[in-house]
TrEMBL record:
GO terms for molecular function: alpha-(1->6)-fucosyltransferase activity. One of its GO terms (biological process) is protein N-linked glycosylation. This is Uncharacterized protein.
Length: 484
């Protein structure tokens, strides 16, 4: 190797710095061989912490665009305006994958096999836990990093499902890194993905971009690169209208990964309706609502009326079938369940409930002695719905949750108590989804909510879209799974 160059951040621009040694931090680099031919690759020191931080992944992708343009100019000997929007499967002929760069002596690589085994053994979900030394490295992989600064679970879940479908389409083996996930271990909530008969690549070979890299990393920080404009342009059908433009994307979402708590939805619906779901005359309606959407109850009753009005052979109203039908609701606002409109409606699940301030105060011990009292923090519940500040404050020793004005530190180590509470919140959300998505004939919801888009995916394209099982109160405008 005669020269190496890399990009440094200087405001909003990047400048190329030349050196004869590789940097000791992750960055795209220009490498020049002894014949003076330039290529670019991504240098991640083999001993660097894995996974990289979200900022590092984002910076690598941003800097890669500048590096790629520079190398292209070097080959053409002139500066040209470069397209900012290539086809999703565009292959940059000037890019050299990490393993290839190592084979040419342009990157150092890992010296021994034991180093690879020590860094990888058991660290990824989906990894074969057997004798890794006898397994070859997978040809192509896609690894999802679950770390995110978003307190909600919905966006991460949608990204995960979409990435799994993409990996299947592209013939990539699929792995998950949950080492810094705010909700703990992936297998606490889900079954692991299929285990391949090969091992993951060395960590420094997993790259966030370009997309044609042999071993791809997908994270919340690089979602615009993986599922951005090029992704939509490639997979959407411009000849169709509204949600039908995204049918190709929709069909790639995996059925196997959506089987959440597979025996729980059917059991719950049996309890709600008094028996197995074998009656054609019953209709199971699902509502997923917030306080501001209480009108959804009106819509649900209207659907039942339309379903059974004039449905008997003599044209009469099937009152018995309508009475046997069930309306099930789920909400992140516990006060919704106590509202007058939904007092007689069944909850999606009763195992885990988020408590409101009123409910907590009702069961709190009352002081029965006069005189001075010890100060007690004000009770705070989940009334109003799920808020990030409330989530990040779980498990803290004292004090009320941070307000929305103050940005919480999402990188602090998770205490055992905080993790226990976060797992409860996550399980409550997922059990709601499991029941609503798999045990409903119709879902009344709003696609502006990620949770509602997840429910549409769980119902399946035919039932949700073609048969009208998903009733979107926001209208029939276009919507996508992954938001960016």
């Amino acid at each position: 190797m005669t020269a190496a160059g890399w990009a440094t951040d200087s405001g909003n621009q990047y400048e190329i710095v030349e050196d004869s040694e590789l940097p000791d931090f992750p960055t795209p680099v220009i490498v020049t061989d002894k014949r003076g031919r330039s290529k670019w690759t991504i240098s991640i020191p083999p001993d660097h912490e894995f996974p990289l931080t979200l900022n590092q992944y984002a910076n690598i992708c941003s800097q890669s665009m500048e590096i790629a343009a520079t190398v292209s100019d070097l080959h053409s000997h002139v500066h040209r305006e470069h397209s900012a929007h290539y086809d999703y499967y565009h292959v940059d002929q000037n890019f050299m994958d990490v393993a290839e760069a190592e084979a040419h002596g342009l990157l150092p690589g890992i010296k021994t096999k034991n180093s690879v085994l020590n860094e990888k053994d058991g660290s990824l979900v989906g990894e074969n836990k057997g004798d890794l030394i006898d397994l070859a490295v997978c040809d192509k992989t896609l690894t999802v990093v679950l770390e995110t600064s978003d307190a909600g679970l919905g966006k991460t879940l949608m990204m995960l499902w979409t990435a799994f479908g993409l990996a299947n389409k592209e013939g990539r083996h699929f792995f998950i890194d949950d080492s810094r996930w705010a909700y703990g271990k992936y297998t606490t909530f889900f079954k692991p993905p299929p285990t391949p008969d090969c091992r993951p690549p060395p960590q420094h070979e997993m790259l966030p971009c370009p997309h044609h890299a042999r071993h791809l990393i997908v994270s919340a920080a690089t979602i615009t690169h993986t599922f951005g404009g090029s992704f939509n342009d490639h997979f959407e059908d411009a000849k169709k209208m509204e949600v039908f433009t995204v049918k190709n994307q929709y069909l790639k979402w995996p059925d196997s990964d959506i089987e959440l708590f597979s025996d729980y939805p059917a059991t719950t619906m049996n309890m709600l309706t008094g028996g197995p779901q074998n009656s054609r005359r019953k209709l199971h309606l699902t509502l997923r609502i917030k306080r501001a959407e209480l009108s959804l109850g009106y819509i649900a009753h209207m659907i039942l009326d339309q379903k059974y009005n004039h449905s008997l052979p003599n044209g009469g109203h099937d009152v018995l079938a309508q009475m046997a039908s069930a309306i099930v609701i789920a909400s992140d606002d516990p006060d919704v369940y106590d509202s007058e409109e939904f007092k007689e409606v069944s909850r999606a699940q009763e195992k885990i409930r988020l408590a409101s301030k009123n409910a907590l105060e009702a069961v709190a011990p009352k002081p029965n002695t006069p005189g001075p009292r010890k100060f007690v923090d004000d009770t705070v519940g989940w009334e109003g719905g799920f808020y990030a500040g409330m989530f990040w404050s779980l498990g803290k020793p004292s004090g009320t949750p941070k307000t929305g004005v103050e940005t919480p530190d999402t990188t602090l180590p998770i205490t055992a108590e905080a993790l226990r509470l976060r797992e409860l919140v996550g399980r409550a959300y997922l059990m709601d989804l499991a029941v609503l998505g798999k045990a409903s004939d119709k879902i009344v919801c709003t696609v502006s909510s990620t949770g509602c888009r997840l429910l549409a995916v769980m119902m399946g394209w035919k039932k949700a879209i073609e048969e009208g099982g998903f009733v979107n109160v926001d209208g029939n405008f276009e919507w996508r799974g992954v938001a960016w």
